[in-house]
Batch of 4 targets.
Target 1
Amino acid sequence: MNKIMYLDAAASALKSESVIRAEVDFLQNGYANAGRGICARAAAVDDMIAHARADVARFINARPDQIVFTSGTTDGMNRIVHIINDRACGAGIKNKTVMVSDLDHHSARLPFELLSDSDMCKIVLCPMDENCNLICSDLPRADVFVITAMSNVIGMPQDVASLVAAARKKNPDVITVVDAAQYVVHNKIDVQKWDCDFMCFSAHKIGADTGLGVMYMKNPERWGWPDKFGGGMVSKITGSAAEHNLALQWEDAPAKFEAGTLPLTQIIGLPVAIDYWSANRPNLDLIKYLYDRLSGNSRIKIITPRDATLFTFYVPDMHILDFGASVGARGVCLRVGNMCASWIHKVLGIRGTARVSVGPWNTMDDVRQAADIIESVVK
Ligand SMILES: Cc1ncc(COP(=O)(O)O)c(C=O)c1O
């Protein structure tokens, strides 16, 4: 059997022993629900969740009450649309202008595109230079600004702080929303430096489990209504819908935004993953090696710069799915297709690309063998 070279960290990271052990230990020895019980075991789980929240807050330079656990970046981005469009904010984003960019992943832009499609808001584009970097000059005025901190196709960090500041110059009330799903993999996030209103990432991209994400809210109390309703988020209910006098008193944030049982096991694993990942970031020399080795190959068109966090390319005259299947059959696990980022592919004039991304588990040997196989397949 072929050796498997898992070169798809940007899609989802493999899990460290420490994360697996923490989750198994919790499931075997400490499991109970959080925020529901008063027995010692339930209290211990409450403590673990509080500690995890505090660790996540430290990780991105935020306060614990600004951290809301979601099920992932997609969930966070969709929820933000509803939170900022809430009924306590009057018209919400109706008739407002939402600035998106061609770097966006479908999960960051589609929720707003769909609102625009039903004439709820107007979409404008953030300008981008010829190297696919978002630029601050000539930003259109916007009420909401969706910023992809690092594209999952181009793999270059964007200057989020300057983009936020430039958008605020045009409109001091602009709501800035950062998709940090890829940025968090390679860079330290500082939400205070960015000064954004919202930021989302997925735990599974930094070696924690699936089904868990983080949504940072700069001012949780600013948003009168939560977007989800259920257990754990309401402290008092008076009146009734039948008598049209239902009144709800929310718990304080973040509980107000965390209706229902949280993904406890995944949350327990997250601080362990953060520790592991912070000490073992992916070695980007592997990406540079691929760039140097394959940039001379006339059959391959590389679209990422040498110092990107990803190696993205295509093979003219070869269907990218055929390419992916051929290298995949020989053990090279990479991503092919439009990467859920169809806008950047449209800008580049190509239907699909292949993407190599590395995690802490990958070695120079992996990329050397992958390059051998890629070269033999495109020959
Ligand atoms: C830039 C970017 N945004 C958003 C997402 C969506 O993340 P998830 O599928 O974990 O919700 C991804 C996942 O690939 C991504 O790369």
Note: The pocket of pyridoxal-5'-phosphate is lined by residues 72-74, 105, 107-108, 148, 152, 179, 181-182, 202 (CB under 6 Å).
Target 2
Amino acid sequence: MTYTDRPLVRALTQFHKRAPMSLHVPGHKNGALSSLPDGLRAALPYDVTELEGLDDLHEPHGAIEEAQQKLAALYGSHRSFFLVNGSTVGNLAMIYATCRRGETVIVQRNAHKSVFHAIELAGVHPVFVSPDWQETVQTPGLVSVEQIEEALHLFPQAKAVVLTYPTYYGTAEGGLEEVIQLCHAKGIPVLVDEAHGAHFVLGDPFPRSALQMGADVVVHSAHKSLPAMTMGSFLHIRSDLVDSERIAHALHMLQSSSPSYLLMASLDDARAYAETYNTEDTVHFLAKRQAFITQLEDIPGLQPVEMDDPLKLTLRVPGYSGFEIQQCLDAEGLYVELADLYQVLVILPLVKRVSNYSFDLVCAKIKRALSQLAPSVKENMGGSQPIVRNEMISQLAYLPAQLADMKSEWISYKDAEGRVAAASVIPYPPGIPLLLGGETVKEGHIRSIEELIAGHAKFQGAIQVEDEQILVVKDGVK
Ligand SMILES: Cc1ncc(COP(=O)(O)O)c(C=O)c1O
């Protein structure tokens, strides 16, 4: 495999060549004291700290600075950062640093929980904009220009717009560029959680990145689509509307003072992977992908559905929920990204010509797994739309800070209509709250919880699935 220069990988390799002896943290002393299995222990000699020649993430003047500059050059940003706590910390920092306590912020409702945690941390007043419903995958999609226009008209005091692009399922484009232009015309920065789009920098056939469309701050989970280690992410700033020093300060506050060098090296490597991804690699990826889809289409009952992002694919089997399909695939040792009531979501590997990945084997396993499904007499999975559709723009009944002082009680979710949720109910994955703490429970929420429980979905947050209860504000019937 050819690599462009990877400054941090290079610095770590050179350091390792010196056969260093550890009188410093971490306590495993280059792996010598570790009883981890060999495969895990093998990486520990590189799990070091801010030593000579290895720079400092929070005050970069050497290899890390150089690596981050290369990252900024690739993405065309003014400034880019390595993140060691996922897009989670990117979302926290970009919102915390851009907005002041008490300010109004317009937020796409189908955001990851980290966006809602950022709202709580920053103490801002969120105005939620519900996305369009996406019939193809039966999930919430992107917000429209008209919705953002309406929100800005109703809340002209808004100080930022926080969007999620693409969706978890790989829906992209839409009217994002127009939304950004609209906001910029009013001097409002657009902050984009582009966790699932780190590879959009590769260009056609991948969708355009929000950065290219003019977004002010963009966060990428490099670990989701590029070959970075879990938690490895990027934050990019390309704006005169936000203060990059405040974002740097927020990252300093919110991230560990001992960031993992393994993780940061993998970010340097992921950047190099994207930088060297060439036209032949794209042609190879597309050919492999197309052959894979064609084979899938030949499997009886299986319906692959392509998304805007060619790296994402959903698989359906009429009459079966995604959770049932997932169970079959798990039994074959095939693990998908997520399941929902309708489908499973697959993230394809961003292969290069030189990559060693057997799509054929995956296809054979899918075929074997699905042959275990008995012919279904069930109708296609039905299901409701979890977002309450008549309320395209909504606010919380209580802000997180108000909720903190309120008493709460567990009640049957079936009796919760009109009550205020005391904390969020989050189907996980994807980690998009179905119900937010402080949000009034609507009939649509109850229907969705019912369907997800029946489908054996996994949850995080204020729900006791076995008792069918959720946590609501005690005296706060609204
Ligand atoms: C849209 C979105 N944003 C943010 C995150 C958080 O990313 P990370 O796991 O890198 O912290 C996720 C995780 O799934 C996500 O789907």
Note: The pocket of pyridoxal-5'-phosphate is lined by residues 86-88, 112, 114, 164, 168, 193, 195-196, 221, 233, 430-431 (CB under 6 Å).
Target 3
Amino acid sequence: MTNKVVSIAAAGILAATAAPAQAQFAKPEDAIKYRQAAFALIGNHMGRINGQLKSNAPNVQVIQSSAALIETLSKLPFEAFIAGSESGGNPPTRAKPEIFKDAAKVKSLAEKMQAEVAKLAATAKGGDINAIRAQFGEVGKSCKACHDDYRRD
Ligand code: HEC
């Protein structure tokens, strides 16, 4: 790596950590796409875990790997609910306008989901399918709790 590349990379890291969330997205559409993409990946990996839990011979490694990914992905969507992204998007955002107003409630729902997801990842490492199934149910409830109030059908 040349020095120039190194300093550009360093500047990128600084921008990513220091800039306000708003500056991470060139336009509101980008923020909508970002959060939809993050949720779509979370949903995909929840589906993979569900598939394993329904099978006669669940593959614990698949569950562990998806749970670990969901733990990381669960941190992503919420910085993208920026002012100006209340409507628009392609497909159109399903976020209800209230999610941009009820900051404290939304934060607590997001943190609850992240905590349940972290517990799922930890439980998956233990490999006990019944315990994983129970915790998977808790994660599902924490998703639904937010969707009921803040996502359109
Ligand atoms: C704090 C609120 C909140 C929590 C918690 C939450 N979601 Fe969502 N989710 C939303 C909102 C709002 C949208 C709509 C985003 C948009 O269209 O801009 C959404 C969209 C989605 C979508 C559709 C993505 C797409 O393709 O557009 C999926 C799938 C999804 N969520 C899955 C989950 C799962 C699984 C969990 C739990 C592990 C979860 N969500 C937790 C608020 C939440």
Note: The chain is about 65% helix and 0% strand.
Target 4
Amino acid sequence: MPELPEVETVRRGIAARVVGRKITAVEIGRERSVRRVGREAVIHGLTGATVTQARRRGKYLLFDLDTGEEMMIHLRMSGRVLVEPVGTLRPAHTHVVLSLSSRDGVSDEMWFVDPRTFGEVVVYDPTQIAEVMPELIRLGVDPICDQFDAVVLKARLHGKRGAIKPLLLSQHVIAGIGNIYADEILHRAGLRWNRTADSLTPAQIRRLALCITDVLTDAINAGGSTLDDSQYVDIEGKFGSYQAEHRVYGRDGKRCVTCGKADIARVVAGGRSTAFCPRCQK
Ligand SMILES: [Zn+2]
């Protein structure tokens, strides 16, 4: 599932290739991809609109339109956004096609491709956000696009019970972190997944805040992670490369490259698989 670094990589691609262009036509294949507001609302809301800005909050892609409305795309499990010249063969599971005004003599299309169809495309009036997109209001702090440091993290964890990993995964606490980056962040911070939030010392909170920012930034710089079983690619169809830098995720049974003295262990808790180094993480 794409997490913050993958979604940010897609956002940057769209900012470069799509912002400033007018959507001249909209085609919708699978109704499920536009289930929230329906086919007519998406076609009516996007046709003739120019995309003026590409933003992101957590795993949500948010686009400002010159009509005053906004478009949201969530990739969920298997969604991809691709931009290709008109006439390029569309892959299977291309559910939404936006024709873009030509730039430098080239007419492109932006595709929303989604084999598993958990993802969605929504067009909405931002004044209706509480009704149409309530989850956006409940999102926690975004460690990359918001002010984020140890003080903010401490405040977000204040009064929260339970293990640190589920708190990192909670989009209401911190927006954008999923299973891959939660494991990588906790390994870099030297913290075991089941440490309770209230057991962390001020120094550990400071280190954790730094590791959240650093791991996510490193992953963005690598274009995100593409795993063997995942479909994640950027808008030009290229894989990310951060999977080569994973220290725990997908490495259970292999030697920890940080300490070189223990093998990466794996446990399943709360339905989620967790990889960690028994020696580095306490
Ligand atoms: Zn280790």
Note: Residues 82 and 236 are 6 Å apart (CA to CA).
